[in-house]
Design a protein that fits this description.
single chain, alpha/beta, Dehydroquinate synthase-like, alpha domain, three-stranded antiparallel β-sheet, 13 helices, 46% helix, binds nicotinamide-adenine-dinucleotide, binds zinc ion
Length: 372
């Protein structure tokens, strides 16, 4: 498809890289990699849903540019983001004799990106890698910023590294085969960028949501590029999350707790953080005087995007959710910290919220009311 290609730079000194966004970019993968002075051998890591659709084009493009690629296909879904799959990838890389100069291409959604990035960060103490994200969530969020890792039984993303890619290639055409539910889930992160950083983006989404849901190529390109720009700006200032980068967690304290306590699978990440962002907006009204009308606008936009806006909980579920929230990485010294909104487009991080308020918001009395 012919849409203008956009370029966003992630400014991280010697680790800086470009994100390219546009239609038909998969065919340019080889040519773009050729500009990076990488070794000839490479491995394309993909999953069983993405591989059959896009691996052939990726491999052909790499071969045409003179590379010698091997294909590694892992199972699809969150459970593949495990040390077991990492081990299987190492074995394949070693059997194909990939060496220090060889590189890895992650072709898929956030699961493949996080997994392949972790493999790249650790195989031979690190080989270069390239992200080719094929979900909306991966294009606007997980492929940019260098957080890579896998899950343990004890929880999500408990093993990982900061390891930046050399290049990110967002081919918007790949989004056409993405299940609608996954696309909507990605929109939850898109809306998040509007809330945390860019009121104009939020308004744009309010005005043009229908067009975006129809995957209008020009609008999609503009929106994905703007989200990448925001993430690049935030990560460029705070790569390892000592401060500002925390704003990207808006809606994630409650969102992660929902994912955790309902088991992965019931709610997609984007669905859980849709509920989480609406809850965070309401907490912002109570704690920071965020305007009620703005909280309504936020709820409306998520609703129109086809995302869940609330959750009804039994008292036992509520207790489980609170416990999960307290286990989250964002808790220090027993207090739950939130990213809260002051305005649409402006948030503050590290806000302590009294537990009673969170409980009230989740529609309940004291947290121990489930104990008979
Ligand atoms: N590293 C980060 O900064 C970061 C940020 C956010 C999320 N994440 C991680 O990302 C993961 C979620 O990523 P996701 O939402 O992309 O999920 P995913 O990778 O599981 O992809 C969702 C589903 O869509 C399929 N798929 C992918 N692209 C497709 C396409 N173009 N056409 C048809 N099917 C396609 C996949 O096979 C999968 O079944 C989580 O593990 C999360 O922890 C990481
Ligand atoms: Zn998220």
């Amino acid at each position: 498809m012919l849409t203008a290609m956009r370029q966003v730079k992630v400014p991280l000194k010697e680790r800086s890289y470009s994100i390219f966004i546009g239609g038909g970019l998969l065919a340019r993968l080889g040519a773009e990699c050729a500009k990076l002075k990488l070794g000839q051998r490479c491995a394309v890591i993909t999953d069983r849903n993405v591989g059959p659709r896009y691996a052939r084009a990726a491999i052909a493009s790499l071969k045409a540019a003179g590379f010698d690629p091997v294909l590694i296909t892992v199972p699809a879904g969150e459970t593949a983001k495990s040390l077991k799959t990492v081990q299987a990838c190492y074995d394949e890389l070693a059997s194909h004799r990939l060496e220090r100069k060889s590189f890895i291409v992650a072709l898929g959604g956030g699961v493949v990106g996080d997994l392949a990035g972790f493999v790249a960060a650790t195989y031979l103490r690190g080989v270069p890698f390239v992200q080719v994200p094929t979900t909306l969530l991966a294009q606007v969020d997980s492929s940019v910023g260098g957080k890579v890792g896998v899950n343990l039984k004890a929880g999500k993303n408990l093993v990982g590294a900061f390891y930046q890619p050399k290049l990110v290639l967002c081919d918007l055409d790949t989004l056409r085969t993405l299940p609608k539910r996954e696309f909507r889930a990605g929109l939850a992160e898109v809306i998040k960028y509007g809330i945390i950083y860019d009121e104009a983006l939020f308004e744009r989404l309010e005005n043009r949501l229908a067009k975006l849901l129809k995957l209008d190529a020009k609008l999609l390109g503009e929106v994905v590029a703007r989200c990448c720009e925001i993430k690049a700006e935030v990560v460029g200032q705070d790569e390892t999350e000592t401060g500002l980068r925390a704003i990207l967690n808006f809606g994630h304290t409650i969102g992660h707790a929902i994912e955790n306590s309902f088991g992965y699978g019931k709610y997609l990440h984007g669905e859980a953080i849709s509920i989480g962002q609406i809850a965070a907006a309401e907490l912002s009204c109570a704690v920071l005087g965020f305007c009620g009308g703005c909280a309504e606008r936020i709820r409306d936009l998520f609703k129109r995007a086809g995302l869940p806006t609330e959750i009804s909980l039994t008292s036992a579920q509520r207790a489980k959710l609170l416990a999960a929230m307290k286990l989250d990485k964002k808790v220090s010294g027993g207090e739950i910290k939130f990213v809260l909104a002051e305005d649409i487009g402006k948030v503050v991080w590290g806000q302590k919220v009294p537990e009673e308020l969170v409980v009230e918001l989740l529609g309940g009395g004291p947290p121990d009311d489930s104990i008979p």
